[in-house]
Amino acid sequence: MSTAPAMSRPKQGASGKTGAWRIFRPRIDKDACNACGLCALSCPDAAIGEDLEIDLEYCKGCGICAHECPKKAISMKREEK
Ligand code: SF4
Ligand code: SF4
To answer: Candidates 17, 43, 50: which one to mutate for ligand 1, based on the most atoms within 8 Å of Cβ?
Structure first.
């Protein structure tokens, strides 16, 4: 029996590439950010790297990172179609 890895690895994502269905995308205000790294730790798709760049190929727009950010430095913006 094979076992699944406990965590997704950065830049690979737990659920694969997102495609075009995402409705909101996160945006980090670098001026407000204190580089604590909580957003990267809380992202279920490991879409935020150590450099705090968001990989939108994998980001699902769930908003967890924005919710968890203690500095309120992440805002969710509606995708423009
Ligand atoms: S919106 Fe969700 S998937 Fe996208 S970077 Fe934030 S926590 Fe990760
Ligand atoms: S959780 Fe907020 S303050 Fe911390 S690194 Fe992410 S954006 Fe910056």
So the answer is: 43
